[in-house]
Amino acid sequence: MNAQAQHRQDASRQLHRVMEERALATVFQPIFSFREGRITGYEALVRGPRGSLLQTPAELFAAAAQEGLAVELNVLCIQQMLTAFAASRLEGSLFLNVSPRLIVQRRHDQERAARYMASVGLAAERVVIELTEDYPTADFAQVHESLMLYRSLGFRIAIDDLGEGFSSLRLWSELRPEYVKADKHFVTGLSDDPVKAQFLRAIQHIAENCGSLVIAEGIENAADFKMVKDIGIACGQGWFIGRPAETPAANLTDEARIANEDARVPVVPTPRLRAGTEPHAHDFIRAVEAAASDATLGALLDRFAASPGLASIPIAGAHGVEGLVSREWLDLAAASPEREALARRPAIEFADRAPIRVEASLDLAALTAILVESDARRFADGFVIVSGGRYLGMGASRDVMRSLQSSRVLAARYTNPLTLLPGQVPINEHLERLLARHVPFTAWFVEVDQMRGLNDTAGFAKGDTLIHATARLLEEACEPGIDFAGHVAGGRFVVLAQSEDWRARAERLLEGFPALVREHVPAEAYERGYFVVRFRDGRESVRPLPKLIVGIVPVLPGVFERRPEVVAAAKRAAEAAKAHPASAIHVDEQHGNAYPQSLLFG
Ligand code: C2E
Ligand code: MG
Ligand code: MG
Questions:
Q1: Which ligand 1 atom is nearest residue 26's CA?
Q2: DSSP secondary-structure letter at 263?
Q3: What is the pLDDT of residues 40-55, one digit of tens each?
Q4: Residue of 420, 565, 594 lying closest to 493 (CA atoms)
Q5: Pocket test for ligand 1, best of 39, 54, 97 (most atoms within 8 A of CB)
Q6: Could you identify the atom of ligand 1 that is nearest to the CA of residue 132?
């Protein structure tokens, strides 16, 4: 017998003993209500004998399924859990994991369940049935019908592990449960995963519209806790809030309490531009069969008439594509008195002999540049895609423009491609959120000023590395998850800081800048203290070294109504800092009465 089979046999032997002896323990894990600010319920979880093959619920239920005893095991668990919960005197609701197969099988047992509850002294109103997803919901109608009976007795319903496994969205829309439990997959690590955050936001959005409360499972740290709360989710569960235990805590741990009391708005992760995901010419290939060199115009006009989306047809001979016939000829020929005669002539006579022709491997940026440079008719005809001279298919300019719209341009507004910091869109969104939530913060406008000397003498690539290094310095100055750094464009940045020690952080930023200048400016200019730019006609001119200017406006709740006012005030503060000959910080005095002095660094 192999090891696996042996293991299975041992497990099944242990299972029978465990079930006979009822050697099961119940642990309870707290569920925290963000709205009420306290623990409002507990999920009951089964544990097999410690150190056995059946210690975890997964092992237990796998062995039970093997033996066809899953439903019996579930019933046993529920009875023990109800008894243990009643005896524990824990307050709030009890969340019970129930398999839909049990719900269906025991369709007429609702009354019995109610009697059992009464015998242990628990009201049905205190129990939430968590429908676990260990099933493809074949008997959906039966599950539904049976649950409605339980509901009529006062039980409430939750869908467990939403987003995992089978058809829980359908279940959600049709059952209208009181709770949905968003699966750990979407929660654990959510604070630095923009996709998870978006999913959870979507789940919350649906919940708001159909009257369910969301419980986020698997909250393991403070950052995820704060993000879940910020999204507006009703309840949370996870190790950070409380581990499953036989006698669980009735209150939050200290660290969870501190996280809960933190009123600051967490920084939402922004989607980052992924390198290497942009399309190439071959991604735009549309299969358009090339016509033979001796094809008549009439044959091509028939093809145009038959397919309205066809913009042009290439003509290919022994040496590849010889020309491109435009759809325009359909109208031109129809309007001509010599239509019949035209149709009999060789199509090649009507072809553009130098159409736009690109290699399949050409990237989006280069392809766009070619299309933008071409004349309007060729743009409309589209481009011939070849590989080593061989015709592969046609590309439509429209497809390229659409793709450009959704990738590069949009991506740059979300993420600056040079520094990978959030771009204009997330900057605006975060600023809106801070204003809407009426929290105090400081808005910084940061600019690497006097870049011309470096760009003119050492080239833009060198200038870019200084900007890149400044972005990293900016990130270091920020408190992770609390302060937000964004890159507007060029050498201009915005910081939205909720940390109380913002002043010290700004000073650190300014103090760190000279080292970057030393590193990125050519030694000769650095030592001299300025650049000497030589023009082609022999003239020379002097330019200063780059400096960093920081304009800060403290934003107290209620002072600014709208986003542009904040940005304008921060820019004005930056202008004031710019007036200083060296790197400087200027704090807006007018709005910053709480922080009256302005700081200057020489
Ligand atoms: P579930 O109902 O989704 O229960 C939550 C699971 O996540 C539990 O695992 C819990 O210990 C774990 N968990 C809680 N907080 C965290 C966290 O912050 N991070 C991570 N990574 N995990 C966390 P457990 O106890 O092993 O239970 C696993 C599954 O077994 C349950 O998933 C449930 O589907 C099933 N189960 C447990 N007890 C019973 C039962 O009595 N009856 C039935 N039918 N199923 C049960
Ligand atoms: Mg559960
Ligand atoms: Mg779950």
A1: 41
A2: -
A3: 999 999 999 998 989 9
A4: 420
A5: 97
A6: 34
